[in-house]
Amino acid sequence: MGYETLLVETRGRVGLITLNRPQALNALNAAVMRDLHEALNAFDADKGVGAIVLTGSEKAFAAGADVKEMQALDFVEGYLGDFLGGWERVADARKPMIAAVSGYALGGGCELAMMCDLIIASETAKFGQPEITLGVIPGMGGSQRLTRAIGKAKAMDLILTGRMMDAAEAERSGLVSRVVAPDRLLEEALGAAEKIASFSLPAAMMAKEAVSRSLELTLAEGLRFERRLFQSLFATEDQKEGMGAFVAKRKAEFKNK
Ligand code: HXC
Prior knowledge:
Blueprint: E1 6-11, E2 14-19, H1 30-45, E3 51-55, E4 60-62, H2 67-70, H3 75-80, H4 88-91, E5 97-101, E6 104-106, H5 108-115, E7 118-122, E8 126-128, H6 142-150, H7 152-161, E9 164-166, H8 167-173, E10 178-180, H9 185-197, H10 201-214, H11 219-232, H12 237-247
Parallel strand pairs: 2-3, 3-5, 4-6, 5-7, 6-8, 7-10
Antiparallel strand pairs: 1-2, 8-9
The structure holds hexanoyl-coenzyme A.
């Protein structure tokens, strides 16, 4: 199906979504949000998809929320319409999701990448929360997710000064899990996604759920939640297959059941 602002395809068991507003460095407007909702609904519902990669262009993953679209917004309109609230759908995706970031990931672009489960960056990536330079603050999770990802000192530095952080600093700070040469970015992200998609889908989805909940729960509650999920996986055929294959010294063939 055709999208106005995205290119969407499947490669094997991986769903690939490419932000496609090159004239605006993939600035995130209402149309991008609507299209992403649709694409994620379709991938979440598709048993043939085991993981999702979200990427942008070489120059920009996304240069932020669309400043031209929101410039004239007033408070009541923004409040009643819960402006930006709908972006949480991305964090609610149930399949593991990788952001492959090249170039600018600023403001809403950085926040969108952080809604994914892991970020793989090209050496050219630049992350930042420059909202302060526009007279506002992060509004799609930056003050919360960036702080949890890189700690208060670095998050305050980026959010209060509006400066950009390069890929090396982002990796050192724990925001990104891998940094690769620009021409290897998509290959690396698709490879990681394929790897994830080759495992049992219920196990991969529960692993995502467990790690995600760790940011919200107390340690005792988180440990209890993890243990329940772990125990519940013994109801799957894939657990019998995975452990049976290990014992028999053969490769597991997961059936996602
Ligand atoms: C709308 C944008 C845009 C944005 C770039 N463009 N970023 N349009 N919203 N966030 C448009 C430019 O207006 C321009 O359009 C075209 O994309 C190319 O951008 P240039 O600025 O000409 O490119 P360059 O000189 O290479 O500079 C790249 C850049 C710069 C450093 C990334 O574009 C930039 O600073 N962009 C804004 C970054 C930012 O402040 N993001 C945070 C947004 S606020 P024309 O038509 O002129 O060619 C945000 C809030 C989140 O995300 C939620 C809280 C409110």
